[in-house]
């Protein structure tokens, strides 16, 4: 009796399980797919504005496109004719001059009264000697600057420096070794420096420069 009841209930269970496993429209995320499709299709294409005044190929008589930028909006100014003759008196009249002097290839930006510590010992000089520094690339004041190409004529300025003395650093000993070798050697070094003081810095006028 129990087997007959179980066999009679098998078709009903089979149809019920098939109905549960069969996908229906209510199970699918219909609202999610619809909203996604609408948001994707509703995006408007981006259209860049095009100006009718812009020329595709800019020339001197046409307007440049908006995407291009002028590196030089105006022509660079032409050099002033006889700039040294016209502006040198103004440079000489202003106080507080500075100069970039070159000593053995090393540039130093100094003013009158500054000290210079050379990274070497200058040969042939003694404390108290006065040296004339005749190589300069820049001379300037608060409002004016004179630049050389590469150096300024030495008749325009006069810069002198006094040798104060020679300084030396403490003796340094460095031990040098090689791998897998028991011997070693010592390298001793004691650098010396020359100290200068800029004692005079004058900018000459045109009459003084022409007299020389």
UniProtKB/TrEMBL annotation:
GO terms for molecular function: structural constituent of ribosome. GO terms for cellular component: mitochondrial large ribosomal subunit. Residues 48-77 are annotated as: Disordered. SUPFAM superfamilies: L21p-like. Residues 48-62 have a biased composition (Polar residues). InterPro entries: bL21-like, bL21-like_sf. It holds the Pfam family Ribosomal_L21p. Transmembrane segments: none annotated. PANTHER family: 50S RIBOSOMAL PROTEIN L21, LARGE RIBOSOMAL SUBUNIT PROTEIN BL21M. Belongs to the bacterial ribosomal protein bL21 family. This is Large ribosomal subunit protein bL21m. It comes from Clonostachys byssicola.
């Amino acid at each position: 009796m129990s087997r007959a009841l179980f066999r009679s209930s098998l078709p009903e269970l089979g149809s019920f399980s098939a109905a549960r496993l069969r996908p229906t429209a209510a199970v699918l995320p219909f609202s999610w797919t619809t909203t996604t499709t609408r948001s994707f299709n509703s995006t408007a294409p981006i259209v860049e504005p095009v100006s009718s005044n812009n020329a595709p190929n800019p020339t001197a008589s046409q307007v440049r496109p908006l995407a291009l930028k002028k590196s030089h909006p105006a022509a660079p100014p032409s050099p002033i004719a006889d700039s040294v003759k016209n502006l040198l008196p103004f440079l000489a009249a202003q106080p507080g001059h500075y100069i970039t002097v070159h000593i053995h290839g090393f540039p130093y930006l100094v003013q009158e009264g500054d000290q210079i510590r050379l990274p070497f010992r200058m040969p042939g000089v003694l404390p108290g000697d006065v040296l004339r520094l005749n190589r300069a690339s820049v001379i300037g004041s608060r409002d004016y600057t004179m630049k050389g190409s590469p150096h300024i004529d030495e008749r325009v300025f006069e810069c002198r420096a006094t040798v104060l003395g020679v300084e030396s650093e403490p003796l340094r000993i460095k031990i040098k070794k090689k791998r897998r070798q028991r011997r070693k050697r010592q390298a001793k070094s004691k650098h010396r420096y020359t100290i200068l003081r800029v004692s005079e810095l004058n900018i000459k006028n045109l009459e003084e420069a022409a007299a020389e």
